[in-house]
Write a structure and sequence with these properties.
It is found in: Cell membrane. The protein is mainly alpha-helical. The protein is built from 8 helices and no strands. Helix 1 packs antiparallel against helix 3, helix 3 runs antiparallel to helix 5 and helix 5 packs antiparallel against helix 6. The protein starts with a helix and ends in a 9-residue tail after the last helix. The model has no long low-confidence stretch (mean pLDDT 79).
């Protein structure tokens, strides 16, 4: 839940950086960043606490194992010894609406940004797209599996575990790499590493007889 609201706050940060660059340091002050962080934590807590209240008072009298990597709400509801169709609908309205609405809002925000920069010079447009591309990549990697898991009635599939890995482990793990690729020093280091790898491969080719190059 916190990740959802943090990504929304970052979309606002990208909007200010691209559309109001001269006022960026004033608008996105340390106080504003602290407010966004606190609001994200509060929103994530309220989002998860609602599901916790729905699940904690259910009667559980059957097996105590779920086919999942963590105690997610839909697999947990399968253990309840009562009809959970209404709770499943509430979970859909909670997690599903938060995921879908936030995803749509983020897509609209980037449509607004792209519309705003169409009158910029080519160099400015490329710079703006470079600023947005990393965040868009993270949003897609995070929200697409999230929407697949929660925008549906109360059902579970074996694929849910794989998709859950994306928005719980893989996407957060890739975030530092995706964002640092915008750093010029990181780009130069990657280019240097790639040139060294290709140089070593070329040296190996020189050591192989010419008649064997094709097979190599």
């Amino acid at each position: 839940g916190i990740e959802v609201f943090i990504l929304t706050g970052m979309a606002y940060d990208r909007y200010v950086a691209i559309c109001k660059p001269l006022h960026y340091t004033v608008i996105m002050s340390r106080r504003t960043c602290a407010i966004i962080t606190a609001a994200s934590c509060a929103g994530g807590f309220m989002h998860s606490f609602g599901q916790f209240i729905l699940a904690i008072f259910l009667p559980y009298c059957g097996p105590n194992e779920i086919d999942h990597y963590f105690c997610d709400i839909y697999p947990l509801l399968k253990l309840a010894c009562t009809d959970t169709s209404m709770i499943g609908f509430l979970v859909l309205a909670n997690s599903g609406s938060v995921s879908l609405v936030t995803f749509v809002v983020l897509l609209i925000s980037y449509a607004v940004i792209l519309y705003a920069i169409k009158s910029y010079s080519r160099e400015s447009r490329l710079k703006a797209l470079s600023t947005c591309s990393s965040h868009i990549t993270v949003v897609v990697l995070f929200f697409v599996p999230l929407v697949f898991v929660y925008i549906r009635p109360q059902r579970t599939f074996p694929e849910d575990k794989v998709f859950a890995l994306f928005f719980t482990i893989i996407a957060p793990m890739l975030n530092p790499l995706i964002y640092t690729l915008r750093n010029m020093e990181m780009k130069n280091a990657i280019k240097k590493l790639w040139s060294q790898i290709m140089g070593r491969r070329g040296n190996r080719l020189k050591d192989i007889p010419a008649s064997h190059h094709r097979a190599y």
